[in-house]
Recover the amino acids of this structure.
């Protein structure tokens, strides 16, 4: 009993983590409060890291947590903390397009699942078995710095372009006298009195 | 299979036990050491009385940590009217759990060979050997930083969800300070990674068994003295202790980001801080002080300068390595407490300027010099 459980522990944990990551992702979509959305996203990232770890690529798991939780999400939480987003206006949850959105999402998911199902090899029963941990940090580093460095650098160029674009959007809306996309502070604060 | 389960359950139990004991004892050490440094007597009252006798175990007040813990548990669990009770409840755990998880990749002893350690169980265990480390991962150091970065979220969440201006200011300070010093901490360690050529902590410890320059043990602190100093300073700042304790500066912010916490929730923040002292000690020991080995020691015995080899029996090596690790970690904890009671607090702008204008350039310079030196040595040897 225990022997079979131990032998299948990896697969069991893999499904558990994958399910938790999915739950976190769904919560991220449906929760109204920004901070809880951030927390849901953090848990999704951590569980995805767990999935990577179980598949035998521990350094990808470490990067996942290090970059997405330790850097990206820390800055998001920092920003949410600085913005005074306790206004009830944020509790208007869904727009009128929620039903079409869900329908389109289901359709897309079905297409994706169908495509994956077709692409699976015939003996698909063992799809979840973890790969042997042959792809270590060293192979990764060599492949990364010899084959993929150009792609990586191009990504950073894209990011710079995105930052410039964001700045341009803010400049334009400020110059045209309109409010910034986030609204003014006084407006957001409204009549709410807090401690 | 079951043997592995038993061994790793023992490892995890040992790690949690060691960390909890360090957490409890350090609360007392901090007060007692402060007292000794300022020529007072210090905490010496709490004792255990053996039931049905009048024998009191005072032991210089060593049980003050236990008394504190019981007090924390029994106090009223005050609940402020917060905007987000969920974030408020989850924040102490977000700050506490990653600190424990970091220890999973730190090697706390050499190689465990159960068959040689406990002969009656030799048949059951066969010739299995285990490195004494909960998770032997090739990404060891990366995982330390991955989990280390998560504690920031706990501090910010606590300050934000408390609906208190002091808490929010404390969280703001904690966030910016920890982000700044984490960068410095990562950069200082990179030089060491260049020299050892690996981020596997077990491997890093093994490489420190050697000899450099004929007489010195190949410890990180001799290879990278600059990095060791910077790492220690950045780690203390990361743990938000004096002289970097601006996020909880009591004269300005009451208790900063955990002002609104009471009872065991507040205890978790405190406990996380004290356990992190032990974790920093363990990390510093592993990276810079030869880990669980005495100078010139390896898994088989000693190799002194001049190639004098002293072989030791396995059980003796095993015990020496376990004890050495604990003693080194305790000495590093004591050093951190020494720093805490010796230096006055920075001003907040000074903390950030110190990180970005002083430590970051120094760390970068250290990394550059190390990279050039390693490259020169490799090309000379090749």
């Amino acid at each position: 009993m225990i022997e079979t459980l131990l032998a299948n522990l990896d697969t069991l944990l893999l499904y558990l983590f994958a399910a938790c990551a999915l739950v976190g992702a769904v919560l991220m979509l449906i929760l109204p409060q920004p901070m809880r959305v951030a927390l849901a996203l953090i848990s999704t990232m951590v569980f995805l890291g767990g999935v990577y770890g179980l598949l035998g690529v521990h350094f990808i798991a470490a990067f996942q947590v290090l970059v997405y939780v330790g850097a990206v999400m820390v800055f998001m939480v920092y920003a949410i903390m600085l913005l005074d987003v306790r206004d009830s206006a944020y509790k208007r949850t869904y727009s009128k397009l929620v039903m079409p959105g869900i329908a389109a999402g289901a359709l897309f998911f079905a297409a994706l699942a169908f495509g994956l199902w077709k692409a699976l090899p015939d003996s698909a029963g063992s799809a979840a078995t973890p790969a042997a941990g042959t792809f270590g940090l060293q192979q990764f580093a060599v492949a990364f710095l010899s084959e993929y460095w150009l792609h990586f650098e191009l990504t950073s160029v894209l990011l710079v372009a995105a930052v410039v674009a964001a700045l341009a959007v803010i400049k334009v809306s400020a110059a045209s006298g309109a409010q910034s996309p986030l609204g003014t502070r006084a407006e957001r604060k409204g009549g709410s009195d807090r401690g | 299979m079951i043997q592995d389960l038993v061994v790793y359950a023992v490892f995890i139990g040992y790690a949690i036990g060691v960390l909890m004991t360090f957490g409890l004892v350090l609360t007392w050490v901090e007060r007692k050491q402060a007292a000794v440094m300022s020529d007072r007597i210090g905490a010496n009252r709490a004792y255990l009385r053996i039931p049905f006798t009048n024998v009191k175990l005072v032991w210089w007040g060593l049980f003050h940590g236990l008394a504190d813990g019981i007090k924390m548990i029994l106090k009223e669990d005050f609940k402020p009217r917060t905007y987000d009770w969920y974030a408020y409840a989850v924040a102490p755990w977000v700050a506490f759990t990653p600190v424990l998880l970091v220890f999973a990749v730190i090697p706390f002893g050499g190689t465990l060979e159960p068959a040689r350690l406990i002969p009656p169980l030799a048949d059951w265990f066969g010739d299995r050997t285990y490195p004494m480390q909960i998770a032997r991962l090739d990404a060891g150091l990366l995982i330390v930083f991955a989990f280390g970065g998560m504690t920031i979220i706990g501090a910010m969440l606590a300050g934000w969800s408390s609906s208190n201006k002091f808490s929010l200011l404390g969280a703001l300070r904690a966030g910016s300070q920890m982000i700044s010093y984490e960068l410095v901490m990562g950069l200082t360690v990179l030089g060491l990674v260049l020299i050892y050529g690996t981020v596997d902590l077990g491997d890093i410890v093994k490489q420190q068994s050697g000899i450099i320059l004929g007489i010195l043990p190949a410890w990180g602190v001799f290879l990278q003295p600059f990095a060791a100093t910077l790492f220690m300073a950045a780690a203390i700042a990361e743990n938000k202790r004096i002289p970097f304790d601006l996020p909880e500066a009591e004269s300005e912010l009451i208790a900063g980001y955990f002002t609104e916490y009471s009872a065991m929730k507040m205890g978790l923040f405190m406990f996380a801080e004290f356990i992190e002292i032990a974790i920093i000690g363990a990390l510093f020991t592993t990276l810079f002080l030869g880990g669980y080995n005495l100078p010139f020691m390896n898994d088989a015995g000693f190799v002194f300068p001049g190639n004098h080899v002293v072989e030791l029996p396995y059980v003796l090596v095993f015990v020496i390595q376990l004890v050495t690790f604990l003693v080194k970690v305790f000495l590093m904890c004591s050093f951190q407490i020494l720093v805490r009671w010796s230096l006055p607090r920075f001003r907040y702008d000074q903390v950030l300027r110190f990180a970005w204008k002083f430590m970051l350039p120094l760390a970068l310079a250290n990394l550059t010099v190390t990279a050039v030196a390693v490259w020169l040595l490799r090309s000379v040897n090749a």
Summary: Residues 2-37 of chain B form the longest helix (36 residues). The beta strands of chain B are 48-49, 56-57, 111-112, 130-131, 211-212, 216-217, 297-298, 301-304, 308-311. Chain B touches chain A through 36 residues (CB under 8 Å). The mean pLDDT of chain B is 86.
